[in-house]
Amino acid sequence: MAVEPLSQKEIEDRLADLPGWTLDGDRLARSYRLTSHFAATALVVHIAQVQDELDHHSDLTLGYNTVSLTVNTHSVGGAVTGLDFELARRVEALAPGHGAH
Q1: Which residues of 67-88 are buried (b: 16+ CB within 10 A; e: fewer)?
Q2: End-to-end CA distance of the chain
Q3: Where are the beta strands (DSSP E) in the chain?
Q4: What does the DSSP 8-state code read for residue 5?
Q5: pLDDT class for 79, splitting at 50, 70, 90?
Q6: What are the b/e assignments for 2-34, b being 16+ CB within 10 Å?
Q7: Cα dist. 55→4, 35, 43, 88 in Å?
């Protein structure tokens, strides 16, 4: 299955279903504030596992009690694709207090 860039309208429509996620330039972006550094680190490990499962990786930043991600699809020139939204949905489901557990 070929990965194709999404139109601006498709991106906006899909972002409506992912509260907290934004378009930052040419990347999807989201930050999470957690209860502790340990909780933030644990979330990073879980995100890394999802990224390996999808074979699609974000830029991931760990702060004291924060985790920030930005993602786009390098193989289509750095555009946003459905694969980026799949990663965003999976991360959202992992984040404490943000999705289904």
Answers
A1: bbbbbbbeeeeebbbebbbebb
A2: 29
A3: 22-24, 27-33, 59-62, 66-71
A4: B
A5: very high
A6: eeebbeeeebeebbeebeebeeeeebbbbebeb
A7: 16, 29, 18, 14
The pLDDT assigned to 101 comes to 34
For 72, how many CA atoms within 13 A lie in the half-sphere containing its CB?
Answer: 16
CA torsion through residues 11, 12, 18, 23, sign: positive
Matching residue, tokens 């992912």: 18
Q: Rounded distance, CA 11 to CA 47, Å?
A: 22
Structure tokens at 66: 């924060």
**Angstrom distance (rounded) from CA 11 to CA 9:** 5
- pTM above 0.90? yes
What six digits make up the tokens of 28?
Answer: 């999807």
Residue the block writes with tokens 């378009």: 23
